[in-house]
Amino acid sequence: MVIYLGADHRGFNLKEFIKSWLKNQGYEIVDFGANVLNPEDDYTDFAIKVGEAIQKDYEKGRGILLCGSGAGVCITANKFKRVKAGLGFNSDQIFAMRNDDNINVLCLASDFIDEEQAKKIVKVFLITHFDNKENHLRRLQKIEDVEDRK
Asked: Burial code of 37-53, b = ≥16 C-beta within 10 A, e = fewer?
């Protein structure tokens, strides 16, 4: 599994922490930036790069995006077909989003979670499998049907 990372200036430090932790866990990482702390950068630029990568690698890849509130990167990532991004604040919530909704991009609010919370959330995001229950598949198909109408 390849993990695609992206963060603006507000998420930069937490992204760097997560990247280091994931590398130590043996994950393959593609970091789309920010590569330096730049208060003038825009979260959309990094969310677009991760969204494009997941759109191409939606069956195997996972994305992790960070900005201050988490909302900006989440909104942007969800503009891409087959990207299912969710904004998470705790591991139980992330379990439900992976298990039921098969999210493939985790969005984190760097202003509202610390490193230990982020590790717990990311771990659950990466180890939880989609349950493939009929009701969940039906709902996800309806989302894909909406995407196809664009």
From this structure: eeeebebbebbbbbbeb
Q: What is the pTM of this model?
A: 0.96
Please report where in the chains the tokens 């999210």 appear, as a residue.
103
Domain count, the chain: 1
Structural domain of residue 16, as residue ranges? 2-148
**Could you tell me the CATH number of the domain that includes residue 42?**
3.40.1400.10
Question: Per residue of the chain (150 residues), what is the pLDDT tens digit?
Answer: 999 999 999 999 999 999 999 999 999 999 999 999 999 999 999 999 999 999 999 889 999 999 999 999 999 999 999 999 999 999 999 999 999 999 999 999 999 999 999 999 999 999 999 999 999 999 999 999 999 986
